[in-house]
Amino acid sequence: MALRLPSPFQAKMKTLLGPNYDNFMKSYEQPPFAGIRVNTLKISDEDFRRISPYKLDPIPWCKTGYYIEEGERPGRHPYYHTGLYYIQEPSAMAPVELLGVEPGDVVLDLCAAPGGKSTQIAAKLQGKGVLVSNDLHPDRTKALAKNLEMYGVRNAIVLNDSPERIAEAFPEAFTKILIDAPCSGEGMFRKDESMLKYWEESSPLTFAEMQRDILHSAVKMLRPGGTLVYSTCTFSPEENEGMIAELLMKHPDFRVIPIDHSGPFSPGETEWLARHMEHISAEVREQVAGTGRLWPHKVQGEGHFVAVLRREGELARMEEADEQAPPVHVDTAAGGHLAVSSGKEKRSERKGRGSLRDPRKGNPRGGGRGGQHDSTRQQGSGRPADSISLEPFTTFLREDLPGTLHGYTVTYGNHVYLSPLPKERLERLKVIRPGWYMGQIKNERFVPGHPLATALRAEEFVRTISLHSEDGEAIRYLKGETLSIPEERLQVFGAAEGKGYVLVCIDGYSAGWGKWQGGMLKNEYPAGWRWTSV
Prior knowledge:
Blueprint: H1 7-17, H2 21-26, E1 34-38, H3 45-51, E2 57-59, E3 62-68, H4 78-81, E4 85-87, H5 94-99, E5 106-109, H6 116-125, E6 130-134, H7 138-150, E7 156-159, H8 163-169, E8 174-180, H9 203-221, E9 222-232, H10 241-250, E10 254-256, E11 266-267, H11 270-276, H12 282-288, E12 292-294, E13 304-311, H13 332-335, E14 367-368, E15 377-378, H14 391-400, E16 408-412, E17 415-419, E18 431-433, E19 436-442, E20 445-448, H15 450-454, E21 463-467, H16 473-478, E22 483-484, E23 491-492, E24 500-506, E25 509-517, E26 520-523
Parallel strand pairs: 5-6, 5-8, 6-7, 8-9, 21-24
Antiparallel strand pairs: 1-3, 1-4, 2-3, 7-18, 9-13, 10-13, 11-12, 12-13, 14-15, 16-17, 17-19, 19-20, 21-23, 22-26, 24-25, 25-26
Helix pairs in contact: 8-9, 10-12
């Protein structure tokens, strides 16, 4: 059945597209394109292509993104549950690619849920630097936190706060900022028909007001020399080129970095600016032409708008940053970070390029509650207790982890995290996850959390078992079943015994915990994450 688009929407698009309108309308007769993006935190692009269960066709604007054939069900394969790839609409992969994230950057994903772009940013950081992922809607942060955990992200903080409050806490703090702004969603009508019932002729102006407020806060958080990417999945110029033109007029220290239009990206729509924003200068209109659009009748993907902006100035490096901001990912001698080692050779860590500035002191507005499967913020609890002994945790690291972990030890109640930032930097913000969740201390024993397992590599834990993806054993584990595993199948390093926590891998890639004793592997896979497909 043909998609029934609102008449006002069709009339608007006809005016905007002119002779290209008929081709645009024909794109709605085609099915949407499906894509996956390789999670290079857990597997290289080359290795994934070698083991991929799907026929892969490269997506032009994302080196690790691939089209998959219509009818494939990538959410029903063990590799999805192991976090080897993220299911993502192809056009949605473009903004992060244009952000230019590098290891060591300090990045803010301001409107991050459900987390696709945050996981893409994290893969580019490769564990070096800081990622702050925020969403204003509490329920959406649950999916955001879960996706970051499933994909093995170690250096991310998840917030549930307003852009205004984050700007107060972190002025000029970030080297890169992504704003995948809430919008009228016109570009996603083909992919998600349910969005049509929420669209009204006034929708673009309503969302433009939200976007204006978000941009107003975001510009305060970008360092001189930093990069900001603004994107939407709508066709509306009011929400796209209009927003960028306004920003350039109000903030002359920002300039558009032109997107290459020789490939899939079309130039920004400047004729609309000339008709509807006559006060905008010719110089600003020329800059806006350097933004980019992905049109569904020109590319294999949905509608998307992207603008890349840079703030004038020289980007502060680690050595030039405030002395009050200690470096991230160094050992105790250099920055007061926890670094527990079993005595084996430490992995080298290159220092990040930036560090977040100290926020103003104040009372906390909430803290992360770190249950294994709970991604919600503890309400009304006041300041979390920090008086627990960390000895069970440090003992676990010393005895069960051959290498070295880096980060600030942050506790909420009996829950333990390793954070890329010290706890006081987050006190005034609503925190969902202050960092990489380690687990909890119960009855003077440490119980490792699921996110600890998903971010580990097999060689980082003393006991591992690799299940096969094709013989049904992996699915049985993902369903929560207890498995019969003879001791000779365990890989045990050093003098450790087989009994205890085991890092369960699927084809060599970490999936979760089990507890092995006497030939039986007790399943520790979280109930809320389990395989439910028939």
